[in-house]
Design brief:
The chain has about 180 residues and is mainly alpha-helical. The longest helix has about 40 residues. The protein has seven helices and no strands.
């Protein structure tokens, strides 16, 4: 009679259960993130932050939501919500803000945005961030940003200005030629 080593059976079961649990947890995190976005929109639109004495929405986000990325993170989430709303029924394929980020630049052109999402889905039925980014680039190519090269002086400007001021303050008649 053949028997399996008990530790091999347990580790296989543990892997499967644990892996499923991890995936379900991340799915729940994404779901709760979208729920938080709906609540954030309500806070902003109804200006409920004023009741707590905050002058504006940005101040509220920076002080109350700093642990979750503050105003910058909230803007990212709100941008993702715009993308999902703009693509209507295709929005269900965008699982989190990171996937929506490369599509945000197309939100003002809904047809191109939908085309990019459709293209990502055509190439991969469960697209990730890179799939959406590649599709957005195919639909509306974006030229790489040119890095502005600024020639830095070899000597700091403060040192140059000190010497310039000293030189200008010299009286030319007192300079002795050697």
């Amino acid at each position: 009679m053949l028997t399996l080593n008990r530790s091999e059976t347990i580790s296989a079961i543990d892997y499967s259960n644990l892996n499923t649990s991890i995936q379900e947890t991340f799915t729940a995190i994404d779901r709760f993130e979208w729920q938080a976005v709906d609540e954030i929109l309500q806070m902003r639109e109804q200006q409920l932050y004023l009741q707590a004495g905050y002058k504006n929405f940005e101040e509220y986000c920076q002080r109350e939501l700093y642990a979750w990325g503050g105003y910058r993170r909230i803007n990212q989430l709100l941008g993702a919500k715009k993308v999902i709303d703009a693509v209507c029924e295709l929005g269900g394929h965008i699982k989190n803000e990171r996937q929506a980020r490369p599509l945000l630049r197309l939100v003002k052109e809904p047809e191109k945005l939908k085309a990019a999402v459709s293209l990502a889905l055509k190439d991969n039925p469960s697209p990730g961030e890179s799939d959406f980014a590649a599709a957005a680039q195919k639909v509306v190519p974006q030229l790489p940003r040119k890095k502005q090269s600024i020639q830095e002086p070899m000597v700091p400007l403060t040192v140059l200005s000190v010497y310039k001021n000293r030189f200008e303050s010299l009286n030319p008649s007192k300079i002795v030629n050697r």
